[in-house]
Design brief:
Blueprint: H1 5-26, H2 28-39, H3 43-46, H4 48-59, H5 61-71, H6 73-93, H7 97-111, H8 113-126, H9 131-159, H10 162-181, H11 195-200, H12 211-219, H13 224-252, H14 256-310, H15 314-338, H16 346-375, H17 377-406
Helix pairs in contact: 1-8, 1-9, 1-10, 2-9, 2-13, 2-14, 4-7, 4-16, 5-6, 5-8, 5-16, 6-7, 6-8, 6-10, 8-9, 8-16, 9-10, 9-14, 9-15, 13-14, 13-15, 13-16, 13-17, 14-15, 14-17, 15-16, 16-17
């Protein structure tokens, strides 16, 4: 990926912002037992804390993406990263589970646009030729935070408390905000310029009409397969990852630090996957990247089934790494494909991918809790494997048809 120093600065800064937003949610997974004990609830009940963040995080991504299209991506990022910091500090002082859930909903609402707006901004800065590789690096950095936060959050929880962990991630959000303010306003596109410049840059052919109608036309239009695969990707990959910390604690007797360190491999492999996705795409095309990603997800689920059977934590190392590698190959590829659905509304296009992935992850967390209550973790892993196998077969065929039409 040949980028100028200024382009790299934008990609890495936005990647750090995404890293903080991912870390802010996913350190909660290994911390759930500590949160449940402190607030006097069952660990399965405390899992609602994950859903409380992921659902608004997903639902509002198209809205934030559209706001970025309209008012300037950099300006919108300033607001939502500041809100992320404030919401995270509120989580640190929440005295009860209902108030913690409310604080997580608020935090998820602000954080919703960080990834969608950043992806569109990177597309503006690097151009379509290097867009896929640049978005892969952006998302690799972002979800490195998801993996690393599991280990760091677990360590902070064991050494201090889960409240201290929230406070630490709130400080990281303030650092991300400071870095954003150091980016030049011109990198946000014409919408970040003066009001006169924005008025002169208005495209008379740009899509207009009610927001929901425009979003529906994109989501259910020619690229609907891309968005439906995004939904099942979030349902399986994020749903499964969200339960790994509690699963390792209950099945293998690991503490927050031990479970978190294992889950850090997710972040390491996200970074690896983000750096190689461009090469895989060049050799096999976007569909090939998605195939490799989904196959990695099946490997991860098989490893978790092995943990369920043996009680050994060792296969979880493979599970965490394969989940991270598979996810980071699949999600950015879907993002890059989605930008072609409507080049005049790339913020909305990428936001709808976020809606599918993260709302799917929130639904996966909620359904996962019901499956665990009904049949234990083996049932959860088995259902996830069936869904992912169906996505690999049916989604792969549909993406192949989309690729043929594009040619």
């Amino acid at each position: 990926m040949n980028l100028t120093s200024e382009q790299k600065r934008v990609v890495y800064t936005l990647g750090f912002c995404g890293l903080v937003s991912a870390a802010d949610n996913w350190f909660v997974s290994p911390a759930l037992p500590a949160i449940a004990n402190a607030l006097g609830v069952a660990a399965s009940a405390a899992a609602i804390v994950l859903t409380a963040y992921l659902v608004p995080y997903g639902l509002l991504q198209p809205v934030c993406g559209t706001l970025g299209d309209r008012f300037g991506r950099l300006r919108v990022l300033h607001v939502i990263v500041a809100g992320l910091a404030a919401g995270t500090f509120l989580c640190a002082v929440a005295p009860t589970l209902p108030l913690l859930v409310a604080a997580r909903v608020l935090t998820g609402c602000f954080a919703a646009g960080i990834i969608a707006v950043s992806q569109a901004l990177v597309g503006d800065v690097v151009g379509p030729e290097r867009r896929g590789a640049a978005v892969g690096v952006l998302m690799g950095i972002t979800f490195t935070g998801q993996g690393l936060s599991s280990g760091l959050g677990g360590i902070i929880c064991d050494l201090m408390s889960w409240r201290a962990a929230f406070a630490c991630f709130g400080v990281l959000a303030l650092v991300a905000l400071a870095l954003l303010w150091r980016l030049p306003a011109t990198c946000g596109g014409t919408a970040d310029a003066s009001p006169r410049a924005r008025a002169e840059a208005v495209d008379p052919s740009a899509p207009t009409g009610p927001f929901l109608a425009r979003a529906a036309r994109i989501f259910f239009g020619s690229h609907r397969t891309v968005y439906l695969v995004a939904c099942t990707t979030g349902l399986v990959f994020l749903g499964v990852y969200g339960f790994m910390g509690t699963f390792l604690a209950e099945r293998c007797g690991l503490g927050s630090t031990q479970a978190g360190l294992i889950m850090m491999l997710y972040g390491v492999m996200c970074l690896v996957g983000g750096t190689v996705s461009g090469r895989i795409g060049a050799a096999h095309g976007p569909r090939g990247v998605v195939y490799v990603g989904e196959a990695s997800g099946l490997v991860a689920i098989a490893a978790l089934l092995a943990v369920s059977v043996t009680g050994s934590w060792a296969p979880a190392l493979l599970a965490a790494g394969a989940l991270g590698f598979g996810y980071i190959l699949t999600q950015p590829t879907l993002v890059s494909l989605s930008m072609d659905a409507d080049p005049a509304q790339t913020g909305l296009c990428t936001g709808l991918i976020g809606l599918g992935v993260f709302a799917g992850g929130g639904v996966g967390s909620a359904l996962g809790g019901q499956l665990v209550a009904a049949g234990g973790y083996p049932l959860l892993w088995a259902v996830a494997a069936v869904v992912l196998a169906g996505q690999l077969v049916l989604g792969g065929r549909a993406l192949a048809a989309l690729d043929r039409r594009a040619r």
